[in-house]
Input
Amino acid sequence: MPYNPHIHHRKSTRLKGYDYTQPGSYFVNICTANRRCIFGNVEDGEVRSSDIGRIVDEDWRAIPNHYGNVTLDAFQIMPNHLHGIIVINESLSDKRGHAGGVSLRNEKNNLNYGRDTTPSCPDDESNDLVKRKFGQPIGGSLSTIIGAYKSGVTIKIRNAGFHDGESIWQSRFYDHIIRGDV
Output
C-alpha cells in the first residue's frame, strides 16, 4: 500500500535531515514482535540461545559478507531483542548524490541481501537523499541493511520450521548515531 499521510500516522524515528548512508557508527536495537522471548532465555545470569537465537546470531555476524562497506562492532542478543553496533565505512553514493545498493547473493540459502531499492533520481545537485517517500529506504542505508537482515532471518526461521505463524520482529528498529570513536 502506498504511503498516505491521512492514514499512516507513524513518525520516523530517524534523525531528520541525516544521511544514513554516510560513514559512521550506529547503535541499533531490534525487538521481537510483542517482546516475545524467542531468541533464548537467561540461565545463571547468561543468555542461552534457542535455535532461533542461533540463526539471529549467525545472520548478524554475516552482515559484512553482504555489505562490503559495513563492519560490526559489539553486539548482544537477548531473549527478546538484540543490540549491536553497525559501522558504515564508506558511502555507496556516487558523485551525483545517488545512492547505490549492494546486491550480493547468499548462495548457501539463495537469499538476496542488500537489494537496491533506489529509483532513478534526477541529475540535480539539490537532490537530497533523505527526501525519499515513506516506505522506500535508500539503497545502502542503515534502514536497508536492517530491513534485509530482518527479512533474511525471517526466511531462514520459516525454512527451518521454527515459525509459528506470528510475526517475528517489531515493524521498526531504534538507532542512535554514535558521535565519537567506538
